[in-house]
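Slack export, channel: ligand-projects

TW: morning all. Re-posting the request from yesterday since it got buried. We need the structure predicted with the small molecule present, not the apo form. The ligand is oxaloacetate ion; the SMILES is in the block with the sequence. No rush, but it would help planning for next week.
GE: picking it up
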Amino acid sequence: MRLGLIGFGNIALTLLGQLAETLDTPLEHLVVLSLPELAGDTEARLKGEFAGVAREAVVVTDAQALLSHRPGLVVECAGHAAVVAHVPAVLRNGTEVVIVSIGALSDANLETELRAAAIEGGTRLILPAGAVGGIDLLAALGAAGGLEVRYRGSKPPLAWSGTPAENTLDLGTLKEAATFFTGTAREAARDFPKNANVAATLALAGAGFEATRVELTADPAAPGNVHEYSVVSPLAKYTMRIENLPSAGNAKTSVSTVYSVLREIRNRIGPVAI
Ligand SMILES: NC(=O)C1=CN([C@@H]2O[C@H](COP(=O)(O)OP(=O)(O)OC[C@H]3O[C@@H](n4cnc5c(N)ncnc54)[C@H](OP(=O)(O)O)[C@@H]3O)[C@@H](O)[C@H]2O)C=CC1
Ligand SMILES: O=C([O-])CC(=O)C(=O)O
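GE: finished. pasting the full token output, ligand included:
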């Protein structure tokens, strides 16, 4: 496989470690789109600790340079701004893209642009389940309409640092669970871009950004990053609760997100996709 990665932070680094461990043969080619100020460090790490992941690995700093290396699949794991900056051009070029920063689609204009770019390029934008699960059933039920979806995201207080939760809570001293946000999935994904991509994933699979109700909670007793949701549809009802281990490199991001991306890659390499 010729793989493109946008971003070289916690998800990308963990993913490359997993690929190194699990692939039978190295990737044919790896191209990483990094920020200009991180490019030198990215190159050094690709040549050092990740030397065995791909037969050839290069670092670029813009989408045109990324595309010049003809990746067969591009994975975005950099943040909402990177989706805006790079993903439309990659799709228009006809290259399939997996994005983890799904909450970027809470901007309706960007969602329209990405859908149009995928159509123009004759390719697809892939939205993986990320840190949540049950998206297969939710998306299937969504086709029948009449969905009611309620989601609650709970994380330990410090996983909400640097977010608007700090406007109402003292995260460093919080002793009890506190819900600091109640609203739509569109508002949650927009206002918590590093913490509420799951809300956007549920919305896109199910009842939409406006109808999907969201609560966000800081909880000192949370056993990890917890995603709970309930679905009522004319066809089925279910509830789901996932207790995720946070990533070692970023407490906001559950490590299962990385495995969800790994699944997308392995499903394109192996003889069976599941
Ligand atoms: N779908 C899901 O379930 C989940 C989605 N996510 C999404 O994944 C994103 C990445 O997570 P994670 O890896 O843990 O975060 P990190 O902050 O560890 O890594 C992101 C990296 O991308 C870099 N970056 C930022 N902007 C760009 C850009 N325009 N081009 C290239 N690189 C860029 C950052 O640099 P710098 O630090 O200098 O800004 C950083 O090195 C999160 O921001 C979130 O949006 C996270 C968890 C779950
Ligand atoms: O990783 C998680 O647990 C979820 C997350 O940050 C997000 O939805 O953006």
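GE: first-pass observations. The longest helix spans residues 255-269. The pocket of oxaloacetate ion (ligand 2) is lined by residues 131, 194-198, 225, 244, 252-254, 257 (CB under 6 Å).
TW: perfect, thank you
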